[in-house]
Amino acid sequence: MRIGIIDLGTNSVRFDVQWIGSNHKARLLHREKVMVRLGQGVFLRQRLDPSAKRRTIEALLNFRKIATRFKTSKIIAFGTSALRDAVDGDLFVEQVKKRTGIEIRVISGEEEARLIALAILKHEKKPQGLFGLVDMGGGSTEVSLCRDSTLLQSSSFQLGTARLQQVYLKSLPPLVTKTQQIESIQSLRQEIRSTITSQIQKQEWPPIPIVIGSSGTIRAIERILKRQYGTEGIERSQIETLIQTMTGCSRPELMKIPGMDAKRVEMILAGTILLEEQMAFLGAHSLRTTRYSLRDGILDREILLLTHSGGVESRFQLDELYQKAAQFGLSKASLQAKVRTASEIFSKTQRLHQLDQDWLRYLCAGVILHEIGSAVSPTHFEAHSYYIVRNADFLAMENWETEWIAQLCLKASLARLSKKDLSFIQQKKQKQIFLQLLALMRITEALGGASSTHSKVKKLTIRKQGTRITLNGRGSKDLTVLRVQQRKALFEEVFKTTLTIQA
Protein backbone atom coordinates (compact mmCIF):
# COMPACT_ATOMS: atom_id res chain seq x y z
CA MET A 1 0.00 0.00 0.00
CA ARG A 2 1.36 3.41 -0.96
CA ILE A 3 0.12 6.55 0.76
CA GLY A 4 0.92 10.22 0.42
CA ILE A 5 1.32 12.30 3.58
CA ILE A 6 1.08 16.10 3.50
CA ASP A 7 1.96 18.27 6.50
CA LEU A 8 0.86 21.82 5.67
CA GLY A 9 2.53 24.06 8.21
CA THR A 10 2.89 27.79 8.67
CA ASN A 11 6.20 28.10 6.82
CA SER A 12 6.56 24.94 4.75
CA VAL A 13 4.54 22.10 3.28
CA ARG A 14 6.10 18.65 3.51
CA PHE A 15 5.18 15.71 1.34
CA ASP A 16 6.09 12.03 1.76
CA VAL A 17 5.18 8.97 -0.25
CA GLN A 18 5.41 5.92 1.97
CA TRP A 19 5.04 2.26 1.14
CA ILE A 20 3.54 0.21 3.97
CA GLY A 21 4.39 -3.49 3.65
CA SER A 22 2.28 -6.42 4.77
CA ASN A 23 4.45 -6.58 7.90
CA HIS A 24 3.21 -3.03 8.59
CA LYS A 25 6.69 -1.57 8.22
CA ALA A 26 7.11 1.56 6.12
CA ARG A 27 9.62 2.47 3.45
CA LEU A 28 10.08 6.04 2.23
CA LEU A 29 9.70 6.30 -1.55
CA HIS A 30 9.71 10.10 -1.95
CA ARG A 31 10.23 13.12 0.28
CA GLU A 32 9.88 16.80 -0.56
CA LYS A 33 9.55 20.13 1.23
CA VAL A 34 8.48 23.48 -0.22
CA MET A 35 8.71 26.77 1.71
CA VAL A 36 5.30 28.17 0.75
CA ARG A 37 5.02 30.46 3.80
CA LEU A 38 1.26 30.01 4.07
CA GLY A 39 1.34 31.92 7.36
CA GLN A 40 2.67 35.08 5.71
CA GLY A 41 0.89 37.96 7.48
CA VAL A 42 -1.72 35.66 9.07
CA PHE A 43 -0.85 36.57 12.65
CA LEU A 44 -1.20 40.28 11.94
CA ARG A 45 -4.25 40.31 9.67
CA GLN A 46 -5.87 36.92 10.55
CA ARG A 47 -6.29 36.29 6.83
CA LEU A 48 -4.31 34.21 4.34
CA ASP A 49 -2.19 36.14 1.88
CA PRO A 50 -3.24 35.65 -1.81
CA SER A 51 0.33 35.01 -2.96
CA ALA A 52 0.84 32.47 -0.16
CA LYS A 53 -2.35 30.66 -1.20
CA ARG A 54 -1.17 30.51 -4.81
CA ARG A 55 2.21 29.09 -3.79
CA THR A 56 0.52 26.47 -1.63
CA ILE A 57 -1.92 25.34 -4.34
CA GLU A 58 0.93 25.11 -6.87
CA ALA A 59 2.89 22.90 -4.46
CA LEU A 60 -0.16 20.69 -3.77
CA LEU A 61 -0.89 20.29 -7.50
CA ASN A 62 2.68 19.11 -7.97
CA PHE A 63 2.32 16.69 -5.04
CA ARG A 64 -0.84 15.32 -6.64
CA LYS A 65 1.09 14.58 -9.85
CA ILE A 66 3.83 12.83 -7.88
CA ALA A 67 1.24 10.81 -5.94
CA THR A 68 -0.34 9.71 -9.22
CA ARG A 69 3.04 8.69 -10.59
CA PHE A 70 3.66 6.55 -7.51
CA LYS A 71 0.10 5.14 -7.72
CA THR A 72 -0.71 6.00 -4.13
CA SER A 73 -3.86 4.52 -2.62
CA LYS A 74 -4.71 7.73 -0.81
CA ILE A 75 -3.37 11.09 0.31
CA ILE A 76 -3.61 12.17 3.95
CA ALA A 77 -3.24 15.93 4.45
CA PHE A 78 -3.12 17.79 7.76
CA GLY A 79 -3.16 21.55 8.29
CA THR A 80 -1.91 23.24 11.45
CA SER A 81 -1.55 26.67 13.03
CA ALA A 82 -1.90 29.02 10.04
CA LEU A 83 -5.17 27.39 8.98
CA ARG A 84 -6.38 27.27 12.59
CA ASP A 85 -5.89 31.02 13.00
CA ALA A 86 -6.96 32.37 9.61
CA VAL A 87 -10.61 33.44 9.45
CA ASP A 88 -10.66 32.30 5.82
CA GLY A 89 -8.92 29.00 6.57
CA ASP A 90 -12.04 26.89 5.95
CA LEU A 91 -12.67 28.67 2.66
CA PHE A 92 -9.12 27.93 1.54
CA VAL A 93 -9.50 24.25 2.48
CA GLU A 94 -12.55 24.09 0.20
CA GLN A 95 -10.61 25.84 -2.56
CA VAL A 96 -7.76 23.35 -2.26
CA LYS A 97 -10.15 20.40 -2.52
CA LYS A 98 -11.79 21.88 -5.61
CA ARG A 99 -8.48 22.69 -7.35
CA THR A 100 -6.39 19.66 -6.36
CA GLY A 101 -8.76 16.99 -5.07
CA ILE A 102 -6.78 16.94 -1.81
CA GLU A 103 -8.83 17.17 1.36
CA ILE A 104 -6.96 18.95 4.16
CA ARG A 105 -7.92 18.16 7.71
CA VAL A 106 -7.15 21.04 10.08
CA ILE A 107 -6.15 19.53 13.43
CA SER A 108 -6.07 21.08 16.88
CA GLY A 109 -2.82 21.95 18.60
CA GLU A 110 -3.39 19.18 21.15
CA GLU A 111 -3.83 16.55 18.45
CA GLU A 112 -0.74 17.86 16.70
CA ALA A 113 1.23 17.47 19.94
CA ARG A 114 -0.03 13.89 20.44
CA LEU A 115 0.88 12.84 16.89
CA ILE A 116 4.39 14.30 17.24
CA ALA A 117 4.77 12.49 20.56
CA LEU A 118 3.57 9.23 19.00
CA ALA A 119 6.36 9.37 16.42
CA ILE A 120 9.13 10.30 18.86
CA LEU A 121 8.13 7.77 21.51
CA LYS A 122 7.99 4.99 18.92
CA HIS A 123 11.26 5.66 17.09
CA GLU A 124 13.58 7.76 19.24
CA LYS A 125 15.89 6.52 21.94
CA LYS A 126 14.25 7.80 25.11
CA PRO A 127 15.80 9.04 28.37
CA GLN A 128 14.93 7.15 31.52
CA GLY A 129 12.31 8.67 33.78
CA LEU A 130 10.71 12.04 33.16
CA PHE A 131 11.47 14.06 30.01
CA GLY A 132 9.81 16.59 27.70
CA LEU A 133 9.14 16.97 23.99
CA VAL A 134 9.19 20.37 22.31
CA ASP A 135 8.18 21.05 18.70
CA MET A 136 8.44 24.67 17.53
CA GLY A 137 6.52 25.47 14.37
CA GLY A 138 5.84 28.70 12.58
CA GLY A 139 2.57 29.43 14.37
CA SER A 140 2.49 27.24 17.47
CA THR A 141 4.63 25.24 19.84
CA GLU A 142 3.66 21.79 21.07
CA VAL A 143 5.02 20.50 24.37
CA SER A 144 4.54 17.03 25.86
CA LEU A 145 5.44 15.48 29.19
CA CYS A 146 6.58 11.85 29.07
CA ARG A 147 7.84 9.17 31.40
CA ASP A 148 9.80 6.33 29.79
CA SER A 149 7.59 5.31 26.82
CA THR A 150 4.36 6.83 28.15
CA LEU A 151 2.84 10.15 27.12
CA LEU A 152 1.52 11.81 30.27
CA GLN A 153 0.09 15.07 28.89
CA SER A 154 0.40 17.50 26.00
CA SER A 155 -0.16 21.20 25.47
CA SER A 156 -0.16 23.53 22.48
CA PHE A 157 0.81 27.19 22.76
CA GLN A 158 0.07 29.94 20.24
CA LEU A 159 3.76 30.67 20.07
CA GLY A 160 5.66 30.10 16.85
CA THR A 161 8.66 31.56 15.07
CA ALA A 162 6.65 33.23 12.27
CA ARG A 163 3.99 34.50 14.70
CA LEU A 164 6.53 36.08 17.05
CA GLN A 165 8.57 37.53 14.19
CA GLN A 166 5.51 39.12 12.57
CA VAL A 167 4.03 40.55 15.77
CA TYR A 168 7.12 41.64 17.71
CA LEU A 169 10.34 41.75 15.68
CA LYS A 170 8.50 42.99 12.58
CA SER A 171 11.22 42.77 9.92
CA LEU A 172 14.77 41.86 9.02
CA PRO A 173 16.99 43.78 8.74
CA PRO A 174 15.45 45.69 11.66
CA LEU A 175 13.82 49.00 10.80
CA VAL A 176 14.51 50.22 14.33
CA THR A 177 17.59 50.91 16.40
CA LYS A 178 19.25 48.21 18.47
CA THR A 179 17.76 49.78 21.61
CA GLN A 180 14.27 49.61 20.14
CA GLN A 181 14.87 46.02 19.04
CA ILE A 182 15.88 45.09 22.58
CA GLU A 183 12.58 46.57 23.77
CA SER A 184 10.76 44.46 21.16
CA ILE A 185 12.60 41.38 22.41
CA GLN A 186 11.54 42.16 25.96
CA SER A 187 7.90 42.39 24.81
CA LEU A 188 8.33 39.14 22.94
CA ARG A 189 9.73 37.42 26.03
CA GLN A 190 6.86 38.75 28.16
CA GLU A 191 4.34 37.32 25.69
CA ILE A 192 6.04 33.91 25.77
CA ARG A 193 6.19 33.85 29.55
CA SER A 194 2.60 34.89 30.13
CA THR A 195 1.31 32.38 27.57
CA ILE A 196 3.32 29.46 28.93
CA THR A 197 2.92 30.26 32.61
CA SER A 198 -0.87 30.23 32.58
CA GLN A 199 -0.99 26.71 31.11
CA ILE A 200 1.96 25.03 32.79
CA GLN A 201 1.12 26.32 36.27
CA LYS A 202 -2.51 25.33 35.82
CA GLN A 203 -1.49 21.79 34.87
CA GLU A 204 1.16 21.68 37.63
CA TRP A 205 3.97 20.37 35.45
CA PRO A 206 7.02 19.15 37.40
CA PRO A 207 10.56 20.27 36.44
CA ILE A 208 11.78 18.42 33.34
CA PRO A 209 15.58 17.99 33.23
CA ILE A 210 15.90 16.67 29.65
CA VAL A 211 14.07 17.78 26.50
CA ILE A 212 13.92 16.25 23.03
CA GLY A 213 13.38 18.93 20.38
CA SER A 214 11.87 18.48 16.94
CA SER A 215 11.24 20.90 14.04
CA GLY A 216 13.53 22.57 11.54
CA THR A 217 14.13 25.66 13.66
CA ILE A 218 15.54 23.67 16.57
CA ARG A 219 17.79 21.66 14.26
CA ALA A 220 18.95 24.91 12.61
CA ILE A 221 19.93 26.29 16.03
CA GLU A 222 21.80 23.08 16.80
CA ARG A 223 23.82 23.35 13.56
CA ILE A 224 24.94 26.86 14.49
CA LEU A 225 25.94 25.83 18.00
CA LYS A 226 27.73 22.74 16.72
CA ARG A 227 29.91 24.94 14.50
CA GLN A 228 30.73 27.12 17.49
CA TYR A 229 31.19 24.50 20.21
CA GLY A 230 31.79 21.28 18.29
CA THR A 231 29.27 19.32 20.37
CA GLU A 232 25.95 17.60 19.69
CA GLY A 233 22.77 18.84 21.36
CA ILE A 234 21.93 22.22 22.83
CA GLU A 235 22.79 23.71 26.22
CA ARG A 236 20.69 26.57 27.55
CA SER A 237 23.79 28.62 28.36
CA GLN A 238 24.86 28.33 24.70
CA ILE A 239 21.48 29.64 23.55
CA GLU A 240 21.79 32.68 25.81
CA THR A 241 25.16 33.54 24.24
CA LEU A 242 23.80 33.04 20.71
CA ILE A 243 20.89 35.42 21.37
CA GLN A 244 23.31 38.11 22.55
CA THR A 245 25.33 37.64 19.35
CA MET A 246 22.31 37.88 17.04
CA THR A 247 20.53 40.81 18.72
CA GLY A 248 20.67 43.89 16.52
CA CYS A 249 22.17 42.05 13.53
CA SER A 250 21.01 42.70 9.98
CA ARG A 251 20.45 39.85 7.55
CA PRO A 252 23.98 40.03 6.02
CA GLU A 253 25.46 40.05 9.55
CA LEU A 254 23.39 37.03 10.56
CA MET A 255 24.47 35.18 7.42
CA LYS A 256 28.10 35.52 8.48
CA ILE A 257 27.42 33.37 11.55
CA PRO A 258 28.84 29.88 10.78
CA GLY A 259 26.14 27.29 10.20
CA MET A 260 23.35 29.82 9.54
CA ASP A 261 20.51 28.52 7.33
CA ALA A 262 19.55 31.14 4.74
CA LYS A 263 15.96 29.85 4.62
CA ARG A 264 15.49 30.46 8.34
CA VAL A 265 17.50 33.60 8.87
CA GLU A 266 14.45 35.87 9.13
CA MET A 267 13.00 33.94 12.04
CA ILE A 268 16.09 32.52 13.71
CA LEU A 269 16.24 35.17 16.48
CA ALA A 270 12.58 34.76 17.42
CA GLY A 271 12.98 30.96 17.34
CA THR A 272 16.09 30.99 19.53
CA ILE A 273 14.43 33.22 22.14
CA LEU A 274 11.35 31.01 22.14
CA LEU A 275 13.47 27.89 22.67
CA GLU A 276 15.40 29.49 25.53
CA GLU A 277 12.19 30.53 27.29
CA GLN A 278 10.66 27.08 26.77
CA MET A 279 13.66 25.36 28.34
CA ALA A 280 13.72 27.83 31.23
CA PHE A 281 10.06 27.20 32.09
CA LEU A 282 10.48 23.45 31.83
CA GLY A 283 13.57 23.58 34.03
CA ALA A 284 15.70 21.95 31.33
CA HIS A 285 19.39 22.75 30.93
CA SER A 286 20.01 20.56 27.87
CA LEU A 287 18.18 19.45 24.75
CA ARG A 288 18.88 16.88 22.08
CA THR A 289 17.22 16.95 18.69
CA THR A 290 15.25 14.39 16.73
CA ARG A 291 14.35 14.13 13.06
CA TYR A 292 10.90 12.68 13.82
CA SER A 293 7.96 15.03 13.44
CA LEU A 294 4.25 15.35 12.71
CA ARG A 295 4.29 13.48 9.39
CA ASP A 296 5.94 10.50 11.10
CA GLY A 297 3.15 10.53 13.67
CA ILE A 298 0.57 10.60 10.87
CA LEU A 299 2.28 7.59 9.28
CA ASP A 300 2.46 5.71 12.60
CA ARG A 301 -1.22 6.32 13.23
CA GLU A 302 -2.06 4.97 9.78
CA ILE A 303 0.00 1.85 10.48
CA LEU A 304 -1.79 1.39 13.80
CA LEU A 305 -5.14 1.55 12.00
CA LEU A 306 -3.97 -1.08 9.51
CA THR A 307 -2.64 -3.29 12.30
CA HIS A 308 -5.92 -3.23 14.18
CA SER A 309 -7.94 -3.87 11.03
CA GLY A 310 -6.06 -7.17 10.52
CA GLY A 311 -5.95 -9.27 7.37
CA VAL A 312 -3.50 -9.42 4.51
CA GLU A 313 -3.25 -6.31 2.38
CA SER A 314 -1.42 -6.41 -0.90
CA ARG A 315 0.65 -3.31 -1.72
CA PHE A 316 2.14 -3.91 -5.16
CA GLN A 317 0.47 -2.53 -8.27
CA LEU A 318 -0.77 -4.71 -11.15
CA ASP A 319 0.08 -1.95 -13.65
CA GLU A 320 3.75 -2.53 -12.94
CA LEU A 321 3.32 -6.23 -13.69
CA TYR A 322 1.54 -5.49 -16.98
CA GLN A 323 4.47 -3.26 -17.96
CA LYS A 324 6.97 -6.00 -17.16
CA ALA A 325 4.97 -8.55 -19.18
CA ALA A 326 4.79 -6.13 -22.13
CA GLN A 327 8.61 -5.95 -22.16
CA PHE A 328 8.58 -9.67 -22.97
CA GLY A 329 6.06 -9.34 -25.79
CA LEU A 330 2.83 -10.27 -23.99
CA SER A 331 -0.35 -8.43 -24.94
CA LYS A 332 -1.85 -6.32 -22.17
CA ALA A 333 -5.35 -6.79 -23.60
CA SER A 334 -5.00 -10.59 -23.48
CA LEU A 335 -3.59 -10.46 -19.98
CA GLN A 336 -6.44 -8.26 -18.81
CA ALA A 337 -8.89 -10.80 -20.22
CA LYS A 338 -7.15 -13.52 -18.19
CA VAL A 339 -7.28 -11.37 -15.08
CA ARG A 340 -11.02 -10.86 -15.55
CA THR A 341 -11.46 -14.62 -15.81
CA ALA A 342 -9.34 -15.17 -12.69
CA SER A 343 -11.36 -12.57 -10.78
CA GLU A 344 -14.62 -14.18 -11.86
CA ILE A 345 -13.48 -17.66 -10.84
CA PHE A 346 -12.19 -16.31 -7.52
CA SER A 347 -15.48 -14.55 -6.83
CA LYS A 348 -17.76 -17.42 -7.85
CA THR A 349 -15.84 -20.01 -5.82
CA GLN A 350 -15.65 -17.83 -2.70
CA ARG A 351 -17.70 -20.31 -0.66
CA LEU A 352 -15.16 -22.99 -1.48
CA HIS A 353 -11.87 -21.25 -0.75
CA GLN A 354 -13.09 -18.58 1.75
CA LEU A 355 -10.02 -16.45 1.08
CA ASP A 356 -9.90 -12.73 1.87
CA GLN A 357 -10.29 -10.50 -1.17
CA ASP A 358 -6.68 -9.34 -0.73
CA TRP A 359 -5.43 -12.73 -1.95
CA LEU A 360 -7.00 -12.14 -5.37
CA ARG A 361 -4.12 -9.83 -6.25
CA TYR A 362 -1.62 -12.66 -5.88
CA LEU A 363 -3.70 -14.86 -8.17
CA CYS A 364 -3.87 -12.05 -10.75
CA ALA A 365 -0.12 -11.45 -10.48
CA GLY A 366 0.58 -15.13 -11.20
CA VAL A 367 -1.79 -15.05 -14.18
CA ILE A 368 -0.10 -11.95 -15.63
CA LEU A 369 3.46 -13.23 -15.24
CA HIS A 370 2.95 -16.96 -15.85
CA GLU A 371 3.97 -16.98 -19.52
CA ILE A 372 6.60 -14.25 -19.32
CA GLY A 373 9.35 -16.87 -19.74
CA SER A 374 8.03 -17.94 -23.15
CA ALA A 375 9.98 -15.02 -24.62
CA VAL A 376 13.15 -16.87 -23.61
CA SER A 377 12.00 -20.32 -24.76
CA PRO A 378 8.58 -21.88 -25.39
CA THR A 379 9.95 -25.13 -23.97
CA HIS A 380 9.82 -25.31 -20.18
CA PHE A 381 8.98 -21.60 -20.14
CA GLU A 382 7.69 -21.85 -16.55
CA ALA A 383 11.27 -22.22 -15.27
CA HIS A 384 12.26 -19.09 -17.17
CA SER A 385 9.20 -17.28 -15.81
CA TYR A 386 10.23 -18.24 -12.29
CA TYR A 387 13.74 -16.89 -12.79
CA ILE A 388 12.57 -13.62 -14.35
CA VAL A 389 9.97 -12.93 -11.64
CA ARG A 390 12.24 -13.96 -8.77
CA ASN A 391 14.98 -11.60 -9.92
CA ALA A 392 12.79 -8.69 -10.98
CA ASP A 393 12.87 -5.61 -8.77
CA PHE A 394 9.16 -4.90 -8.41
CA LEU A 395 8.47 -1.70 -6.47
CA ALA A 396 6.85 -2.33 -3.06
CA MET A 397 6.84 -6.13 -3.45
CA GLU A 398 8.32 -7.96 -0.49
CA ASN A 399 10.61 -10.97 -0.87
CA TRP A 400 8.00 -13.47 0.21
CA GLU A 401 5.49 -11.99 -2.26
CA THR A 402 8.00 -12.26 -5.11
CA GLU A 403 8.71 -15.90 -4.18
CA TRP A 404 5.01 -16.79 -3.98
CA ILE A 405 4.23 -15.30 -7.39
CA ALA A 406 7.31 -16.86 -8.98
CA GLN A 407 6.32 -20.25 -7.54
CA LEU A 408 2.77 -19.87 -8.91
CA CYS A 409 4.31 -19.28 -12.35
CA LEU A 410 6.61 -22.30 -11.99
CA LYS A 411 3.99 -24.76 -10.76
CA ALA A 412 0.97 -23.71 -12.82
CA SER A 413 1.60 -26.56 -15.31
CA LEU A 414 3.35 -29.06 -13.04
CA ALA A 415 1.71 -32.50 -13.30
CA ARG A 416 2.27 -33.55 -9.68
CA LEU A 417 3.25 -31.71 -6.49
CA SER A 418 5.45 -33.12 -3.76
CA LYS A 419 6.14 -31.90 -0.24
CA LYS A 420 9.46 -30.56 -1.52
CA ASP A 421 7.60 -28.31 -3.97
CA LEU A 422 6.01 -26.49 -1.01
CA SER A 423 9.11 -26.35 1.19
CA PHE A 424 9.48 -22.59 0.56
CA ILE A 425 6.43 -22.07 2.84
CA GLN A 426 6.75 -22.85 6.53
CA GLN A 427 3.24 -22.46 7.94
CA LYS A 428 0.59 -25.09 7.23
CA LYS A 429 -2.18 -22.51 6.72
CA GLN A 430 -0.05 -20.57 4.23
CA LYS A 431 0.64 -23.77 2.27
CA GLN A 432 -3.10 -24.37 2.00
CA ILE A 433 -3.66 -20.83 0.72
CA PHE A 434 -0.92 -21.29 -1.89
CA LEU A 435 -2.48 -24.54 -3.09
CA GLN A 436 -5.88 -22.88 -3.36
CA LEU A 437 -4.45 -20.03 -5.44
CA LEU A 438 -2.53 -22.49 -7.61
CA ALA A 439 -5.67 -24.56 -8.23
CA LEU A 440 -7.62 -21.45 -9.26
CA MET A 441 -4.74 -20.31 -11.45
CA ARG A 442 -4.61 -23.66 -13.29
CA ILE A 443 -8.31 -23.43 -14.18
CA THR A 444 -7.83 -19.82 -15.31
CA GLU A 445 -4.95 -20.86 -17.57
CA ALA A 446 -6.98 -23.73 -18.98
CA LEU A 447 -9.81 -21.36 -19.90
CA GLY A 448 -7.56 -19.03 -21.87
CA GLY A 449 -3.81 -18.38 -21.88
CA ALA A 450 -2.38 -15.09 -23.06
CA SER A 451 -0.18 -16.66 -25.71
CA SER A 452 -2.37 -19.68 -26.47
CA THR A 453 -4.19 -19.94 -29.77
CA HIS A 454 -7.37 -21.62 -28.56
CA SER A 455 -10.62 -19.74 -28.29
CA LYS A 456 -11.18 -17.80 -25.07
CA VAL A 457 -14.38 -18.27 -23.06
CA LYS A 458 -16.86 -15.47 -23.77
CA LYS A 459 -19.08 -15.98 -20.73
CA LEU A 460 -18.44 -18.11 -17.67
CA THR A 461 -21.03 -19.41 -15.22
CA ILE A 462 -20.31 -21.65 -12.24
CA ARG A 463 -22.91 -23.84 -10.54
CA LYS A 464 -22.39 -25.79 -7.34
CA GLN A 465 -24.56 -28.78 -6.49
CA GLY A 466 -23.43 -30.67 -3.41
CA THR A 467 -19.82 -31.71 -4.02
CA ARG A 468 -20.07 -31.15 -7.78
CA ILE A 469 -19.10 -27.91 -9.56
CA THR A 470 -20.02 -27.28 -13.18
CA LEU A 471 -18.30 -24.68 -15.35
CA ASN A 472 -20.37 -23.47 -18.26
CA GLY A 473 -18.10 -21.64 -20.68
CA ARG A 474 -20.11 -20.18 -23.51
CA GLY A 475 -17.92 -19.78 -26.55
CA SER A 476 -15.41 -22.39 -25.42
CA LYS A 477 -14.30 -25.13 -27.83
CA ASP A 478 -13.38 -28.76 -27.42
CA LEU A 479 -9.72 -27.84 -26.82
CA THR A 480 -10.70 -25.65 -23.88
CA VAL A 481 -12.77 -28.47 -22.39
CA LEU A 482 -9.83 -30.83 -22.79
CA ARG A 483 -7.43 -28.37 -21.12
CA VAL A 484 -9.74 -28.00 -18.11
CA GLN A 485 -10.00 -31.78 -17.85
CA GLN A 486 -6.19 -32.00 -17.85
CA ARG A 487 -5.69 -29.31 -15.17
CA LYS A 488 -8.61 -29.90 -12.80
CA ALA A 489 -6.99 -32.56 -10.58
CA LEU A 490 -5.47 -30.13 -8.09
CA PHE A 491 -8.72 -28.14 -7.94
CA GLU A 492 -10.71 -31.30 -7.09
CA GLU A 493 -8.11 -32.41 -4.53
CA VAL A 494 -7.80 -29.06 -2.74
CA PHE A 495 -11.52 -28.24 -2.66
CA LYS A 496 -12.71 -31.85 -2.31
CA THR A 497 -15.16 -31.55 -5.15
CA THR A 498 -15.81 -32.83 -8.67
CA LEU A 499 -15.33 -30.36 -11.51
CA THR A 500 -16.93 -30.64 -14.93
CA ILE A 501 -17.09 -28.19 -17.86
CA GLN A 502 -19.77 -27.69 -20.44
CA ALA A 503 -19.06 -25.91 -23.73
Topology record:
Blueprint: E1 2-8, E2 13-20, E3 26-34, H1 42-45, H2 50-69, E4 74-79, H3 81-85, H4 89-100, E5 104-106, H5 109-123, E6 130-136, E7 141-147, E8 150-157, H6 161-169, H7 178-203, E9 210-214, H8 216-229, E10 234-235, H9 236-246, H10 251-255, H11 268-282, E11 286-289, H12 294-309, H13 318-327, H14 332-348, H15 350-353, H16 360-369, H17 381-391, H18 399-411, H19 428-447, E12 459-465, E13 468-474, H20 478-487, H21 489-495, E14 498-502
Parallel strand pairs: 1-4, 4-5, 6-9, 9-11, 13-14
Antiparallel strand pairs: 1-2, 2-3, 6-7, 7-8, 10-11, 12-13
Notes on the protein architecture:
With 503 residues, this protein is an alpha/beta fold. The protein folds into three domains: 2-106, ATPase, nucleotide binding domain (Nucleotidyltransferase, domain 5); 110-297, Exopolyphosphatase. Domain 2 (Nucleotidyltransferase, domain 5); 318-455, Hypothetical protein af1432 (Orthogonal Bundle). Helix content is 50%, strand content 17%. The protein is built from 21 helices and 14 strands. It has helices at residues 42-45, 50-69, 81-85, 89-100, 109-123, 161-169, 178-203, 216-229, 236-246, 251-255, 268-282, 294-309, 318-327, 332-348, 350-353, 360-369, 381-391, 399-411, 428-447, 478-487, 489-495, and strands spanning 2-8, 13-20, 26-34, 74-79, 104-106, 130-136, 141-147, 150-157, 210-214, 234-235, 286-289, 459-465, 468-474, 498-502. The strands form three sheets. Strands 8-7-6-9-11-10 form a six-stranded mixed β-sheet, with helices on both faces. The chain has a five-stranded mixed β-sheet with strand order 3-2-1-4-5, sandwiched between helices. A three-stranded mixed β-sheet has the order 12-13-14, covered by helices on one side. Helix 2 (50-69) runs parallel beside helix 4 (89-100). The longest helix has 26 residues, at 178-203. The protein is elongated. Residues 309-314 and 449-455 have low confidence and may be disordered.
